Amino acid sequence: MIYHCPICGKWCENYSQDYRNQMEMYRVKELTIIDEWNAVPIPPAPELKSVTIDPETSALLILDMETTICKNPRCTASISKISKILNKAREMGMLVIYSLTHAGSPSDIALQIAPSPSDPVVKSNVDKFYRTNLEKILQEHGIKTVLITGYAANGAVLHTATSAAFRGYDVIIPVDGMSAVVPYAEQYTAWHMINSPGTRNRATLTKVDLINFLPLETSYRHGIMNIHRNKQHKKVQGLSQKVNRS
Prior knowledge:
The chain is an alpha/beta fold. It is built from 6 helices and 11 strands.
C-alpha cells in the first residue's frame, strides 16, 4: 500500500519522517496534562540545606496545628519535630507566632507545642497574611526571615510561605515540620517552593536537625552594628539634604 504524504506531496510506501513528526505534534497538542498524568516523570528531589538562623531577625511560625484537624499519622508525627525547634527558638528568645483556622482557638493547638500567653496568634484562611496583622507584627520586630512549620503543607504552609516570599521575607521550611494527609501534597509543596518563580529566590528547604542558631552574643553584636550603620546612614542622608538645600 502506498500513502500520499501531505508534507512532501508525494506518494510513498511509508509515511515520511516529517509527516510522522507532524502527527506526533498534533497528538501532543490534543493531550492535556490529565491525559499525560501517569507518564509525567517525577523531578529530582530538592536538596535539603543546613541553615543558620539569626534569632534577632527571624520568627518561627506554627500554622494551624489544631488537634481537631491534626489527626492523621503524618501530622501527629510532625509535632515532636516542631516541638524540638520551638524549644530551641524559645531558648534563643525568638519571636514565635501561631495561626488558627477560622474555627480554631488557642486551646485547640497540640499541647506539646502550645502557645505561651505572650505569643501572637492570627486567624485566617490558608494565607495567614490575609486580613490579619501578621505583616505588622513581623515589621514591628524587625523580622527578615520566617521559619514556617505546620499543617497542611499544601494549605497554610504553602500559601503563607508564598505570601511571605512575595513580601520580601526569606522563607525557611523544615520539611519534617510540615505535613499533609497524603505524601504527594508535601512533595508538591516542596517542589513548588524551590521552583516557582515567585518563591524560588527566597525559599530554602531544610529539616529540623539541620537548623542552627547564631549565638545570642553574636546576634546581639550584629544588631548593634546594624543600628550603628543605620544611624550613620541617616547622618549621611541628613548632610546630603543640607547640601542639596544650600
